[in-house]
Amino acid sequence: MIVVTGATGNVGRPLTLALAEGGQQVTAVSRHAAQLPDGVRHMAADLTVPTGLEPALAGAKALFLLLSGDLHAATARPADIIGQAEAAGVRRVVLLSTQGVATRPFGATRIAVRAVEDALRESSLEWAILRPGGFASNALWWAESVRTQRLVAAPFGDVGVPIIDPVDIAEAAAACLLEDRHAGGTYELTGPQVITPRQQAEAISAALGSPVQFHDLTRDEAKAAMARSMPAELAEDTLTILGSPNPAELRISPDVQRILGRAPHPFAAWAARNTAAFR
Ligand SMILES: NC(=O)c1ccc[n+]([C@@H]2O[C@H](COP(=O)([O-])OP(=O)(O)OC[C@H]3O[C@@H](n4cnc5c(N)ncnc54)[C@H](OP(=O)(O)O)[C@@H]3O)[C@@H](O)[C@H]2O)c1
């Protein structure tokens, strides 16, 4: 049995589906129940509760570990999950980390994720670490304004990064969970090309078959909007990456091709698959 945390999110949902379709027994973990593929067991667990994952780990051979935005909750001790997986007899853990651990190693979030990476590397478990850059699904931020006004409002409209389709992350995770050759691998996952917010708006417009306007926000306007759903420090940090990506954040990684034997999906493919969110 394979435990998938974050199973109802952008990455976990297609991962759960891919594993279930491949005949794997899957336990899907999230706090809230959701519709899951046939045969998949759901277990409610909160990763900010120190022993929250232990019941789900009983009998598991592998774990996909996705640490949610609650990484900084006062009660969260995410590195402890590695020891819990060892104690439960789990053989292999695939950790969803972040590119920033390598490209901007300072900042509270990346230091916290790095600590989990280190705990995993020092454990007796087989492991693989996925370090994705920005997700294509971050464009869902614009879903409401596209639906209601056919408008994308974003900062740094002409500054791009090679964002990645969460389906590519999910398929890479499935390969790392199932194939021995990925043991000890640390993979950086990016999309196939640098794409700007303005170009993303154009791709959404093409997928909808309907014009979508682009409006440049100032950094302060963007920060005020983001601070409604994330800590101000994280909003500031995210804006710095989006506005001034460093060379490492602009690099197109070969790792999706190495893992999956195919190129990563372009943003247009993600937009075409997700038109329902923007209609
Ligand atoms: N977005 C980016 O550009 C980006 C870039 C690099 C790395 N990442 C990393 O990717 C991860 C987010 O992946 P995603 O987009 O697939 O997530 P997502 O769509 O936001 O979904 C989060 C998943 O985690 C579950 N969850 C949230 N809080 C939880 C908790 N306290 N305990 C247990 N489960 C919890 C959610 O279900 P419930 O709410 O029902 O619990 C849901 O299944 C984060 O670790 C982030 O650091 C993101």
Automatic annotation (TrEMBL):
InterPro entries: Ergot_Alk_Oxidoreductase (IPR051604), NAD(P)-bd_dom (IPR016040), NAD(P)-bd_dom_sf (IPR036291). Transmembrane segments: none annotated. Residues 6-139 form the NAD(P)-binding domain. It holds the Pfam family NAD_binding_10. It comes from the Bacteria. This is SDR family oxidoreductase. It comes from Streptacidiphilus cavernicola.
